[in-house]
What we know:
Blueprint: H1 3-8, H2 15-18, H3 26-38, H4 45-49, H5 59-64, H6 82-85, E1 86-88, E2 91-92, E3 98-102, H7 131-140, E4 146-150, H8 159-170, E5 177-181, H9 184-187, H10 190-193, H11 196-205, E6 212-216, H12 226-237, E7 241-248, H13 256-269, E8 272-278, H14 286-289, H15 293-304, E9 315-320, E10 323-331, E11 334-339, E12 351-355
Parallel strand pairs: 3-4, 4-5, 5-6, 6-7, 7-8, 8-9
Antiparallel strand pairs: 1-2, 2-3, 9-10, 10-11, 11-12
Helix pairs in contact: 8-11, 13-15
Amino acid sequence: MDKWQRELEKNIKTIDHLKKHISLTPKEEKILEKVIEIHPMNITHYYLSLINKKDKNDPIKKMIVPSRDELNLEGSYDTSGEKQSTKSVGLQHKYPETAFVLATNKCAAYCRFCFRKRLVGLSTAEILERFDTAVDYIKKHKEIDNVLVSGGDPLILPTETVEKFLSKLSKIKHLSFIRFGSRVPVTFPDRILMDKKLLKIFKKYSKKNKRLYIVTHFNHPNEITEKSTNAVDKLIKANVILNDQTALLKGVNDKPEILVELMKKLVSIGVNPYYLFQCRPVKRVVHHFQVPFYRGCKIVDDARKKLDGHSKRFKFMMSHNRGKIEVLGTRNNYIYFKQHQARNPELVGQIFRKKLNRKSGWLDDKLNLS
Length: 370
């Protein structure tokens, strides 16, 4: 077992372990026990150390420590139609040009806002069993020009497994680039800092004509630490390009000044702001994390007024059942949207509007467009 794997073995996974670090009342203990029976807890010591224990509303704590709000059953577990896009176990093909591989159901740490709450840390039949099956599918579909390997978090798989993925995918001639979706640089940077072999593999497979990308997930400026910055630097030196997908989360980053600081810091360390995602209406998540569209548009507009061109490149997006939809903004009691990607390519570029509802944070699956 590698050093980073031994470190993960020490993660906080029980309420008894958690209360050694965070004070809990007996009532809170009982409630949280009930929560983690349904959705497990998993926190790295590094990420736990970022919590300001004097701040009861600490954003890191809100993102990683279970809460009673998770007992709220509003929402659903598959809000963007992943089941509908599944071609074989662990392989999704929603957009013509992109194949998506669910490589694992585990992460270094389990975020409480996770949109795949239905499978992360749980027994599931959705995870890839044979990588060769996915490779064969991708080879046969020449319209696919990129692959996203995600989960869970593929970077907590053994380094040899990551290399196997890259070795097989890099031989497919019609692929232009390969992506890994990972929050490891944020919650467990030691995975990168402790494993020189992983960095050598990245450097080997990230070529000038077929780049390797890591799409990571910083949500708050407090996550950008010396360690996470060093991990990002190591990845950049291994020829990896880093993009960031931030989730807009109530009580975490739903203030313009927080987004301004976050985006500026990301640019300064070499991570490209890519998407700011509207929180999906996921069961046990939406009630306490989703910001209404109306507020979200105001937050984004106010933040962009204070950002330079590089730091405001991100698009305000939602990952909807019919595809990725950009939230353009509000005007005259309407919210305007643009279809960014779609199951049906003919819809891409379509601009539509919906009557402004100040409490709404999502669009119905069956859109009545105007």
